[in-house]
């Protein structure tokens, strides 16, 4: 078994609820298959499912356990769209291609619904996006644009309606997506793994890729105790991918975000947050939260290129934001009670869009879903499956974004400065709206 990494010592609420099967044997032999998938997060699991449904042989090698990375520790919000805002996508590729990309994101959204509907995982409908400053004009404009140009309708709420549901003066107007939902992130991964087991698709845990090389028949990768020979090799790594991914690793950055979960808060929580909706404020560098397990609050946010893994410091960091929004939920010491705290590494490309497409003949990338991965990783996986099976070339929609250099040693500093600039902009707009 590989040595435990720092993030694995964090206790997530998802893991505490999970009913994981016993860990299987790592890969200990030489195996051959048509497609080898590296990574058992959402992208890798969905890709294996898509290929198996097409009767194409595939297997997964995973360095740790199914869903242990970002796919099984994110906030659990799912709706259509991409991490890059629609307006910026339009500027980059034009309105018509932006519409096609939005439809793809909606297709990925439905892929998640289908799997959750087929299993025991619950979906709670409704995501509320409140603004932290007076923003009625922009929210109404965006609502109308989404309906007219993208065929997707969301609801607009005035400040009084928002504050009826959320007892805080921090929020003003909001838009609400009634079709979006929130769910148990790890449960989706484990449900997919169970589906693959029934399909007979091998998933080798604790079998991290050490290196890979081209052969006359395709590709070969080696793990600690075994190797895989394949015609198609697909990297579904995320923020936890390392140097073993060669030049692909130089095309994305691991960015950290944080989540805490409170102990049961009882009636105090129910009086403060009077909605079952998930809440994700409109700031780019904002907070997101939802009620879980009846009367606990899962609270996430912050983005940094220089991650923190110590649970106590994560609790302090996130608790400060929490208490600023809902001081009435603080304890007698003025802080928020925290039972679980953890971090997660997301893979981000410079352009904020996924990196989907060929790296070489028979070598594919399906990665960089940070910030909006619940729906985009599944559709990314489907596009790669279609390409392998010669069904479509929809992956070419992402050629316009490509695999730009991540900035090397300077990349994290650039990301950090951009994020801090976003925070200052959010703060300034909030102050100005109160004048």
Describe the model.
With 435 residues, this protein is an alpha/beta fold. The protein has a domain at 6-73 and 186-252 and 350-404: FAD/NAD(P)-binding domain (3-Layer(bba) Sandwich), CATH 3.50.50. Helix content is 34%, strand content 23%. It is built from eleven helices and 17 strands. It has helices at residues 13-17, 42-53, 86-93, 95-118, 136-150, 159-165, 185-199, 267-272, 311-325, 373-388, 411-433; strands at residues 30-38, 58-61, 77-78, 123-130, 155-157, 174-183, 203-204, 211-214, 219-222, 227-235, 253-261, 278-280, 287-292, 296-304, 340-348, 355-360, 363-367. The protein is globular and about 65 Å long. The relative contact order is 0.19.
Question: What is this structure, in a nutshell?
Answer:
The protein is α/β, with parallel strands linked by helices and 435 residues long. Helix content is 34%, strand content 23%. The protein has a domain of 190 residues: FAD/NAD(P)-binding domain.
